[in-house]
Design goal:
alpha/beta; disordered C terminus; about 25% helix; 16-stranded mixed sheet; elongated; two-stranded antiparallel sheet
């Protein structure tokens, strides 16, 4: 962006040709991040120059645009973008969706025929969870217009996807391979994996409510196409055993797994032996395992206090060569809680590393940080 803005149309033919190369024009970013992580559009004067002088001359090279919703219309109308396939929109809201994600939109052809990768990032200031049936259905609008999507991510949207009682064809796609989304309950997760998304190989989902009983009967066949799965949820009592584990065991060819799970009111801790016996042995192709499993257990259920060495031993006893184990265990009030782990499984080896922060387990984050291993009792 800066190179294009500074050097495009300079009085130097060779330099002019260089800045038009794909290295500088394949992906253009028209947003800025503030020190508070808010996302803003670049200055209007910069947008104007690009729209008038630059974009019409390089649009055939552009494959990806990163835009702020307020300047989206000007930029998309400035050129034809015959090779544009990826679109990331920041500060999305219901007005943007209802105005532009329709068959009457001037971008109809672009959205329907070209865009295969769509990332919608909602405005953090209006991120309020809602299940109001009178609101526009963000997901319905999106899928009705973007017919060729292979990747859809909806981030920070206050509206939770709920499809448990909808027709099978409502959320069906032969093209979608990657989905990152927040759903209302476990029924919705099972519904998305009941065969309607046949090509899905990457599924990143946050479930807000774990229902005790499933409201429908779902197809529970194995998911051999699933290669990458990330789950964030909160479980009570035995819901981890009755909901999470059966779902994971269907992913027989999984290569990457991320779990961010809070367990309340369990009677047993989840240690290395359980993780191996209940998860890892069912995933022979697994190469990367990132997890934060927090378990609260009443002290009267624990026959003896586990030391740091005791808990580490549950990982080494399962037969993997340990490179690094990072474990933080603490006793607070009347509960015991295990918190963040990062494990990498490669052939018959595992590396254990703690995540820098729990927020790194959000949709796109896989950053690592080594820390220390200790037990703290309070």
């Amino acid at each position: 962006m800066d190179v294009l803005y500074s050097l495009f149309d300079v009085n130097n033919q060779r330099l002019h040709m260089i800045v038009k190369e794909k290295t500088f024009t394949n992906t253009l970013t028209f947003v800025l991040a503030t020190i508070t992580d808010d996302i803003l559009s670049v200055d209007d004067s910069i947008v104007d120059r690009f729209c008038i002088n630059i974009l019409p001359k390089i649009d055939y090279n552009i494959k990806s645009l990163i835009l702020e919703s307020q300047s989206m219309e000007r930029i998309l109308l400035a050129a034809n973008y015959p090779n544009l396939t990826e679109l990331k929109l920041y500060n999305v809201n219901d007005h943007v969706i209802s105005r532009h994600f329709t068959v009457e939109s001037p971008f109809r052809h672009l959205f329907q025929e070209q865009i295969t990768d769509l990332i919608l990032v909602y405005n953090r200031a209006i991120h309020i969870l809602s299940n109001n049936p009178n609101e526009i259905n963000v997901y319905e609008y999106t899928l009705n217009v973007f017919k060729n999507l292979k990747h859809l991510s909806v981030i920070q949207c206050g509206q939770l996807l709920s499809i448990k009682n909808l027709a099978f064809t409502t959320w069906s796609s032969l093209n979608l391979t990657k989905l990152c989304i927040d759903v209302f309950c476990f029924d919705d997760c099972f519904a998305l994996l009941d065969g309607r998304l046949k090509q899905l190989n990457t599924f990143i989902v946050r479930i807000y409510y774990i229902n005790d009983e499933l409201s429908s009967v779902y197809n529970m066949d194995d998911l051999p196409n699933m290669k990458c799965f990330s789950l964030r949820c909160r479980c009570e009592t035995n819901q981890y055993d009755t909901r999470v584990l059966p779902l994971l065991r269907r992913m027989i060819k999984l290569k990457e797994l991320t779990l961010n799970i809070i367990n309340d009111e369990r009677t047993t801790l989840i240690d290395g032996t359980q993780i191996n016996n209940q998860i890892l042995v069912h995933m022979p192709c697994l190469r990367e395992f990132i997890f934060h499993i927090s378990t609260e257990v009443e002290l009267h259920h624990i026959t003896h206090h586990l030391s740091n060495e005791d808990i580490q031993q549950t990982f080494t006893n399962i037969g993997y060569q340990q490179h690094l184990l990072v474990l933080f265990c603490k006793i607070i009030r009347s509960s015991i809680e295990n918190v963040p782990y990062w494990v990498r499984v490669e052939k018959a080896k595992m590396e254990y590393r703690r995540r820098e922060a729990l927020k790194k387990l959000e949709c796109d984050a896989l950053h690592l940080k080594e820390t220390h291993c200790h037990v703290n009792e309070q």
